[in-house]
Amino acid sequence: MLKDGYTLMHEHMFIDLSGVKNNLDCRLDCLDETINEMKKLYSKGVRNITEVTNMGMGRDVNYIKKISQESGINFICATGYYKEPFLPDYVKDTTVDELAEIMIKDIEIGIDGSDVKAQIIGEIGTSKNEMTDLEKKVFLSAIKAHKKTGVPITTHTTLGTYGLDQIEFFEENGVDLNKVVIGHVDLSGDIDYVLSILKKGAYVEFDTIGKNNYLSDDIRVDMLKVIEEKGYIDRVFLSLDITRKSNMEYMGGIGYSYIFDIFIPKLLEKGLSKESIDKMLYHNPRRFFNVSE
Questions:
Q1: Which residues are bridge partners to 206 per DSSP?
Q2: Nearest to residue 182, comparing CAs of 231, 232, 235?
């Protein structure tokens, strides 16, 4: 499942949220430029990327296969549904069991008639400070698919909110939190909140690195230092969650390599150990996906 190397746990190679957002920048469809950036990541030791684009977000596994073939990066592809207002229309009239069966088919047979099998369920999301009825339906169907297949779950929290509530929902429905990662918690800027999730036994993602317009990376660094000191660094993943053309290097954005060129030096300067960084990028993803070391 995973090649021997670093893993970024929450990325998009192709995603299209432009219709709902009415903004063509939100259609990430720059194939050649993405391949160039993936080759650059490969040179920095990245061998795996969890590509969390799912149904309703523009998922295109053939596009991903091209990038993989050209760059050497191994992609873990996803199944599931995102959050309102990005859910396909049919989610409303489809039962929980039927939605679960769609996910199970992606996992056991292949995505969209391809030979690519989904290896993670997500990113399933909640709205800001709430879980809508349709989002609850998606969560319940994801839990059914997870229990049938054993495939782990990755979530979206809007601006970092509602993550602890997601944890409680998973607990109420008998999900092993070792198989769950709560996304975007760094955007909360609230270390006590993040620690409360970690203490429950789930994984968390600091996966909006470089998005300083939302939250300063200096705050992310400070939070990660506290997490290291408290002994929870083995439950953290790192990523950037690039979703726009303007995030890309060719458009003057941070690019995927920002995490290695800018952010990791900040962590080291703050005093985080190389061991902790290796955990977040290498050892923790392997444990999450049950890859023996």
A1: 238
A2: 235
